[in-house]
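Quick board copy: two proteins, each given as sequence then tokens.
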Amino acid sequence: MPTGSVKLQSIKQLGQENHSYEVSDEGNVLFFNFRFATCKDILMMVVGCLCALLHGSAQPLMLLVFGLLTDAFIEYDIELQELSDDRKECVNNTIQWKKNYTAAYNLSALLDIEYEMMMFAFYYAGIGAAVFLLGYLQISLWVTAAAKQIQLIRKLYFSKVMRMEIGWFDCTSVGELNTRMSDDINKINDAIADQVSIFVQRFTTFVCGFCVGFVKGWKLTLVIIAATSLLLSINLLTGMELQAYAKAGSVADEVLSSIRTVAAFGGEKKEVQRYDRNLVSAQRWGIRKGLIVGFFTGFMWLVIFLCYGLAFWYGSSLVVDTKEYTPGTLLQVFFGVLIAAMNLGQASPCLEAFASGRGAATIIFETIDREPEIDCLSEAGYKLDRVKGDIEFHNVTFHYPSRPEVKILDQLNVVVKSGETTAFVGSSGAGKSTAIQLIQRFYDPKEGMVTLDGHDIRGLNIQWLRSLIGIVEQEPVLFATTIAENIRYGRPGVSDKDIITAAKEANAYNFIMDLPQKFDTLVGEGGGQMSGGQKQRIAIARALVRNPRILLLDMATSALDNESEAVVQAALDKVRMGRTTISIAHRLSTIKNADVIVGFEHGQAVERGKHNELLERKGVYFTLVTLQSQGDKALNEKARQSRSSPLGMTKSTLLQSKCFERLMHNAFLEEDDELVEPASAARILKYNTPEWPYMLFGSIGAAINGGVNPVYSLLFSQILATFSVQDPVAQRKEINSICLFFVVVGIVSFFTQLLQGYAFSKSGELLTRRLRRLGFQAMLGQEVGWFDDHRNSPGALTTRLATDASQVQGATGSQIGMIVNSLANIGVALIISFYFSWKLTLLILCFLPFIALSSGFQASMLTGFAKQDKEAMEAAGQISGEALNNIRTIAGLGKEKTFVEMYEAQLDAPYQAALKKANVYGACYGFSQCIIFLTNSGSYRFGGYLVQKEGLHFSLVFRVISAIVTSGTALGRASSYTPDYAKAKISAARFFQLLDRVPQISVYNDKGEKWDNFQGNIDFIDCKFTYPSRPDIQVLNGLNVSVKPGQTLAFVGSSGCGKSTSVQLLERFYDPNHGKVLIDGHDTTRVNVSFLRSKIGIVSQEPILFDCSIAENIKYGDNLREISMNEVISAAKKAQLHDFVMALPEKYDTNVGSQGSQLSRGQKQRIAIARAIIRDPKILLLDEATSALDTESEKTVQEALDKARQGRTCIVIAHRLSTIQNSDIIAVMSRGIVIEKGAHDQLMALKGAYYKLVTTGAPIS
């Protein structure tokens, strides 16, 4: 190995903790990737290497035979010429002068050329057979050995991942782990399987080829080496390719990430132009790259032809003038060096595979070597004899490892007494769920400790501790198996009787018995076949079957509708008896009857007591109760039995993230299986029609390039013919002219390669740019809801623009070039061969399909196998995916071992498939390597016959054979290009899908109503709405509210009650599912989108600025006209911004940084206000415009807003009541409907929800 051995930094003597197999002591200096090889594997790999060594020496061996064969032909030809001299005759196989000449001295015996060729044919066939066998062995042994090691690596990796603490999963995304388990381990496989043996084989050929050259003729070898060293310089230069698309990519990313801002200000067309401007550099670079590649390919061919010329010219002088070499030696040396150089080039891709394999292995082995901080499978720790169930938090401080800067718990002190029910309440993010996770020991506190009956839980055995705890979560996770199995996960080996008891206790028994298959009903992936209430009750049964001492209920009923809630709640009340129970809930109805209620705020327990005591304290609990009871009343008045979400959607973020993970997981599966029909080549070409002249010239270049290969065989055979010419002067002259001809061919080849490279890259890059622009334009034209789908996240879309668009060109220019090239190659070859000897040509044509097949075969073999591997790994992948997605549930149930065992059981199928693949692949490889030897064997044997019996000139034998064999390899090369083509067609199809999608709310179309005297009269009539990405959560529940022109409407309410949503409906980012939004009496769904948005200005809580100057950001407010600097300044003055800008060194040209990162929040906010003012909107939307500011800036910004509001219809959303007291209408929202509305004084007089909020001064968030 040229790479040398690698000293591993830390090999844990593997197997020490799990004693799965022996490890020798000197195991720490190994070639990195073979850590897990057993002795048997090592033996297989060594034998495989030996076979590869022998196989590698076969090609140079063949050269020795080839040299002798050439000499025999030339000798025979010279003798024929002797005989054609009428002064000589042949007697008993000896050429003599005729009698009447002076002396009768013998010349030499006439060769029996047919017999000689017979011998050579046997040599060839023998070498061919050996090559087949060696090729088969080297591949199958290595692949088999690799399969065993990979299986072991997969097992170790998965079992290690399952032992990691939860904090590790927070920092490592599940998607990443899934790719590691598939792709990275496959990369290791590539690096330690067939690639090693192929590398050894090619390297051996390289060494042996040079040896043949030096042994047979060192002078010529040195001359050729000097010339070919020019070729090495090329490879270096092509490696210097740059990435110029980055700039345009960052524009796309910025725009797609802030799509709502772009839509609100109608900046779509402007952004498309900005993107297109940035594409120019990428296009230029692509064309330059094509030129460079064309230049170097041309240069390479030029050098090769010059080498041929030089070698034959110098070599022939050694043969003819100094008689040092025979013609055969000349060929041996020349081809020896050539083969050596070629194989060195072919060996380099293997090094790439090694490198990427080692990179992947580093990551995988790092995980395998990592010791989990909380090892769930360890045997260590105490198990208490009896458990009372007192839990206490002592000064616990904690932050999540993934967000170390956010303190979640801050010196938390809580006592939970055994046998009592303690409720944790508080706003979201106060640390309630975190406290529960610490009790399960998913994390360890940074300071302080959690104790169970006075014992620090860090000293207890983890599996034992978790077996005491039953947990029911907000979004219970069920596994894809039967109901009974899901309940059995709670406690291994539980009897059916216990399962039924648990189901009865959880109020689940009746609905289970109503199902056709009862307890054997499958719940589907993630429990998808069950309703929320059913899932919840199965989860409760699962928790109960453990017979837990401690029951943790984390919002166990929040995701349910009222009916199921009552049932589940009843079940919970039944099972709480006699257990230590901690319940987190937002619905206060579920907590009222708890023994103790603990109020959380900012990671501390700020109050504790019973329901009535806490109401008198007017603290956290009070605020929550007030808002909620009002919301409940209003809802009950409307008597809506619709599924409503708990107190707005405070917890929905968590819920969302959990749903989201599930969705993500399912969608990842969809994404791959989302079968797009490959696009038709015709449609792709249609996008490329403007470039037809380039494609025409490119094709001409390609055709000439294709013809060059066969021309080479003409010249080559012509040279051999000259060696049998007797007259020295004529011989010299002929040699010189042929060498010159080589030079001419080289120069032509150089120019045509250049032409082909430039023309096709130009047409391809223009196509890529056109597609990128169209794609980006199509993306910006989609409705906002489309971007909520995680498959259309900014990251995914930008990669689509970057990769899909550039892959499409693989289906046009270069592909056409390749086809034309191959056709020309084969055409010219066949014409030459048939012209010179049709009989021999027909014989070789029988071999041609095999030659072409063998090279195409390998390509398709590998892709076919990759697909099979993927299918085989699918079952295992499903288990690992399910396990990683639900790691918290599995850890809570202590089921890690079960999943590891299930995974290992699934690994057998891929392993068997790999063994089968080893044999098939080995045989194919052997065949593809030996076919060329067999072809030569047959052709030269038949050639010998034709030369002897039909007087064919021997040079024609070489001419025909080399012409067809080179064209055969060209055929194979063309067929190996097809994967790119297929990829291109799929990329194109994905692209066309995007271009063809018709958005539900279209910005680009001019249809829709427009009217002149736009007033700004707004009415929401019974609007109901759910976000398309979360159809199960009703956000608006029948919103009714109206604003007259010039009035200010303020929305107040807890977060998630639908305030911002109503603003988005007004902007027409979404359309309501029911009811309508009217503006000046026009239904918004019928109004022209860009007209509507041009009348609305918006300032949001976190304003998004673009990475350009302050002036440009302000001008962004109106993209329909050119805006003068004076307007910008007057808008800035209105927004209290002007003075601050003038104080900056570059004034209005100051760049705000990406996302406005160079400015403070107050400054960004004022720029956003100026941007809204400049479009002179009739309607102004202020979405918590001042909430993120400190008091000082708030004042300034508030003044600016008050100025901006004059004479406009205004909708304000605010959390601070001080900011909205002077509004014309204040609407208090809860759960997606308005529960009170009126002016400040009216609402105060009502003494309802608003009054309580104002008087207690409680925050509304």
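And the next:
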Amino acid sequence: CWLPAAARSPRGPGPGPGHGSGLPSSRYRSPESLLDCAAKAVAEKWAFERVEERFERIPEPVQRRIVYWSFPRNEKEICMYSSFQLGTGDGLPFRRGIRLLETGCVENVLQVGFHLSGTVTEPATSSEPEVTHKVAISFDRCKITSVTCGCGNRDIFYCAHVVALSLYRIRKPEQVKLRLPISETLFQMNRDQLQKLVQYLITAHHTEVLPTAQKLADEILSSNSEINQVHGAPDPTAGASIDDDNCWHLDEDQVREQVKQFLSQGGYYGSGKQLNSMFAKVREMLRMRDSNGARMLTLITEQFMADPRLSLWRQQGTGMTDKCRQLWDELGALWVCVVLNPHCKSEEKSGWLKQLKKWGDMDICPLEDGNYDSLSRPRRTVFSRAVEACDLHWQDSHLQRIISSDYYMSPSYQREGESLLFSPQGLPLWLDHVPTACARVDALRSHGYSREALRLAVAIINTLRLQQQRQMDIYKHQKKELLQRGVTSTTNLEGWVGHPLDPIGCLFITLTETCRVDDDNTMDTGDCDPRPPVYHHVPVWGSPDAGESYLTLALEVALMGMGQQRIMPEGLYAQDKVCRNEEQIVAKLQELELDDLLVQTLRKQAIQLLEAGPFSGLGEVIHRESVPMHTFAKYLFSALLPHDADLAYKVALRAMRLPVLESSAGSGDVGHPHHGISIVPSRYPRWFTLGHLESQQCELASTMLTAAKGDMLRLRTVLEAIQKNIHSSSLIFKLAQDAFKIATPAESPPDITLLNVALELGLQVMRMTLSTLNWRRREMVRWLVTCATEVGLRALVSILQSWYTLFTPTEATSIVAATVMSHNTILRLSLDYPQREELASCARTLALQCAMKDPQNCALSALTLCEKDHIAFETAYQIVIDAASTGMTYSQLFTIARYMEHRGYPLRSFKLASLAMTHLNLAYNQDTHPAINDVLWACALSHSLGKNELAAIIPLVVKSVHCATVLSDILRRCTMTAPGLAGIPGRRNSGKLMSTDKAPLRQLLDATISAYINTTHSRLTHISPRHYGEFIEFLSKARETFLLAQDGHIQFAQFIDNLKQIYKGKKKLMMLVRERFG
């Protein structure tokens, strides 16, 4: 067997003298006696029944030492069964148990054979009185097999009272009264003594044991009873029988109940954290080589498979939450660890395989790729990897040699030719499927074989190094052809980052664990926040390179894995997992403090990734659907920048690409036989995480921009990379804002180089969004003007002169030019008069161009901007007049007309109002139309200008307005005052009121009467009784208008008679008409 006996021991050393050794605390101790040495070994490995069978008579001193050493000796094991995490938190049973022990709360401790009992007193609190609990513990072969406590604890773990009693026995064994199993004591008694014992026992506990004692006495006295057919009698203190399983006490019902409860909470109230703690407990048990690890995992899995949400999700076709998916992933990974136990029995593995297949065959079993069920591949569940791992074994002789020795190398004379077992330097290789090989490492580490896991991890890394070197050699021969094509079909269809077995994370943890500087007492951390880990270099055992440490290897393999070029997997969950795993690895890398050795490794690997061609995600040519390297490159950039800025920028700029978004891609080259060739056409729509990937690309660019502040050459290079590779206007805008913020610190002068980059990015955003809808467009335009203002006068002049490539005419006039011409801008730039004039001239030119291009939306802004320049103002006005007949609405024209009146151009205002009237059509029933105020204003303006203007506009009003109430309102206003009160210079006004019998009001009166008649007939067509009163009031208003005419009363009377004749069927209405109008 390849593991030495010491490595296979299921127990590590105890916490120290007096803390697990079972011996008095003393600096100098005499060697253990041969009796104690033998008793310790027997107590740990043999059931006491086997000892009794083997030897006819066991001397009492030997029995005492075996019983003495049969109690657990390691406090870590007690801790494992009394807390979720290793001793963290004062509220945990383990910490509370220590407090009870140290404050003297444990008393009456007695060990009878393999049974320990005692009392533990909980001190009184402000709300609870003092209470004493009786505690009983059974144990066998250094494992606690059952516990009972008067506190009635119902939990997976032992209560604080069981912990206190257990630790008392471990720390103070010499203070515990020790007796042999009760059957041995009884054997030494004669009949009278036995009778006395029984009678005293019954007397002491007669209410509890008397019925049982009488029943047993009756059965013993009956010759045919079952009790007389069995030889001997049971003894609860005599230890386990040969057939009993030797395992720690685990309350299976409580495990089921708690998992069920946590699952029912659906990830809320910290249940996800609790389930992860249970998984961590399984790993802890596996590491201690405790058989309960697999047992507890089985119980957890059964409850997971019984979760009612599984069938619900399947029926509804909805996906489970990310948190839930991650729990299932961890469940699958744990099963891989369990079945890869290097020392499990074949019947155990067969049982697990059967159970895993049963779960995997169930319809509700979650799939490996989340909710995505690929039709192109066989169905794979979360247990598929574990089922496949059942076929793996540890019997390979090369594998056994790798694991069992730090110095396993090939002889020097065998290193000439190619070898599948050793590198050219003679180091052992392990040529297995990488995730599978790493699963072996994880299994070794998980089952407590950390040294063996390290050896295999080193062999895997040596294999990856050799493969990387050979891939670089292959690329050198194909480089010219590949660079001409610009794209490759060579890639890894199965990536290591985001893989269900997490190979890179597994190797990294295995290697860094041995380099971690831990506190002296890992079980006494209290409940403070976890501190970041501290690492130191540990040389690689047996490595020919003296500078190589497990920490440098960890960094190297993480970089190799992250830099591997790989196809984006199918399905939302698998893609999300790639992103999440990448971030997890980067977070671990950021915990490393980079010293010279690590920087050297970082530089070397970064250069290799850049030169590795299509096998690296940072190579010169990559597959169109290769997973982007933005997150990884951001880490590399930040890590390399202080040590090798040129390399940092080279890596980051290379990683900026996102080829899946490029519009076209050339044909790929022939793939390497060891790598998959993607023959799938563009699958861009299935990139579910594209938004996240683009934001990471943006983060990388922002990091580079920040670092390049003040360096014009670097900034120009980064800017070109952004413009070439980022295709989202929102993200480019974010970069522009970031650059602007960094370039304009509050307390110091702005950085003009970075400001110019921000401006260029902003201009690109403007061009990208000019012809597409973007809800942030107004914000973008305002920001660009702010940025250009910070850059200076020339930038503002430039955007004004090239406005048509950046802005719509409306934006250019209402936002850009208006802001540029504002008082604040002039002050901000401290412009002198010639500069102000230059800016104003550009703004006016822009305004006129916009007015020509879009008079409807820009004419008013153009007039406003050109107010201070007579020629420009006249030009703008002429543009409005020219556009009025064709492209402008009455509303726009009325607005400009009112503006002209406000600016003191009443005749121009009248002209525009007249043009607006030609575009208006007000129907008879539109008495709430929004244009009514404009019509009344236009007529009032005409009236104030004089009779001629009023005479000119009334025909337009009569033609456009058919609403009787509006016409009567205009007529009333025109007859109240004399026309021409505006006092136009050079005109004479008579000051007389105008008559409705003469033009132009006669035409308006006739039109109003006609409108009332038409409106009356229209309303009577569909009138209902509830509107009769309103109709009578309408006729009253009509009568007022009729009476303005000379023969108005006669016309109205004829009109009423006409109504009575035509609508005589509406008797009630006509009766109301007669009552009011006769």
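Board note added afterward: The radius of gyration is 47 Å.
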